[in-house]
Design brief:
The complex is a heterodimer of chains A (111) and B (112). Chain A has 111 residues and is mostly beta strands. Chain A has strands at 3-5, 10-14, 19-21, 24-26, 31-38, 45-49, 60-61, 72-74, 83-91, 100-101, 105-110. In chain B, the strands form two sheets. In chain B, strands 2, 4, 5, 6, 9, 10 and 11 form a seven-stranded mixed beta sheet that branches. In chain B, strands 1-3-8-7 form a four-stranded antiparallel beta sheet, with no helix packed on it. Chain B is globular and about 40 Å long. The chains are: A mainly beta (111), B mainly beta (112). The A-B interface holds A 4, 34, 36, 42-46, 49, 86, 93-94, 96-104 and B 3-4, 31, 33, 35, 41-45, 48, 56, 59, 91, 95, 97-98, 100-106.
Chain lengths: 111, 112
């Protein structure tokens, strides 16, 4: 069975501090990994996906198949990064509609 | 472009009543999905349409839930009769083939 685990329900950091949101997964095969973000009163939106290998809003995430992790990192957090972050996975290729989500981590960046 | 729109944004009904949620996908998106987040749990897949056809409805909880997408445009999700455990946020999303999902704002359903 596929599963996504986000061990931290809440994460609080100060502005300018590094932030890392943890995500571990279990999946038999080659998954595709995503990070979704939901800002206050906004819709859930894609932040980044591992196959893109890009940095969005200063965030990066590296897929570590050995540790089955896809942690989200940003070297210097900003107050506008405060939001709910969801890690998700899907099967490789055309089945990327059937996302399995983690429970989410609420990130608060304090001034 | 206009995003995925869902209606209503909130719905409060009594146990045993019927509720119909609506989703208008982004124009041109053949793929339409329904997801649900029950309080304290993960966001979970319910079903997937390709145009008007149900491609995968493996996540539908039981036969009290009925989804339709007549004409391959908007979709409705009907819950009849609603039970307390159906309370949660229902998300709709749409996409083009092999492209990321675009989510709506969700409908918060409360069954009392």
């Amino acid at each position: 069975a596929q599963r996504v685990t986000q061990p931290e329900k809440l994460l609080s950091v100060f502005k300018g501090a590094p932030v890392e949101l943890k995500c571990n997964y279990s999946y038999s095969g080659s998954p595709e990994l995503f990070w979704y973000v939901q800002y206050s009163r906004q819709r859930l939106q894609l932040l980044l996906r591992h196959i893109s290998r890009e940095s969005i809003k200063g965030f990066t995430a590296d897929l570590n198949k050995g540790e089955t992790s896809f942690h989200l990192k940003k070297p210097f957090a900003q107050e506008e990064d405060s939001a709910m972050y969801y890690c998700a996975l899907s099967g490789w290729g055309g089945s990327n509609y059937k996302l399995t989500f983690g429970k989410g981590t609420l990130l608060t960046v304090n001034p | 472009e206009a995003g995925v729109t869902q209606f209503p944004s909130h719905s409060v009904i009594e146990k045993g009543q019927t509720v119909t949620l609506r989703c208008d996908p982004i124009s041109g998106h053949d793929n339409l999905y329904w997801y649900r987040r029950v309080m304290g749990k993960e966001i979970k897949f319910l079903l997937h349409f390709v145009k008007e056809s149900k491609q995968d409805e493996s996540g539908m909880p039981n036969n009290r839930f009925l989804a339709e997408r007549t004409g391959g445009t908007y979709s409705t999700l009907k819950v009849q009769p609603a039970e307390l455990e159906d309370s949660g946020v229902y998300f709709c999303a749409s996409s083009q083939i092999n492209s990321p999902l675009h989510f709506g704002n969700g409908t918060r359903l409360t069954v009392t």
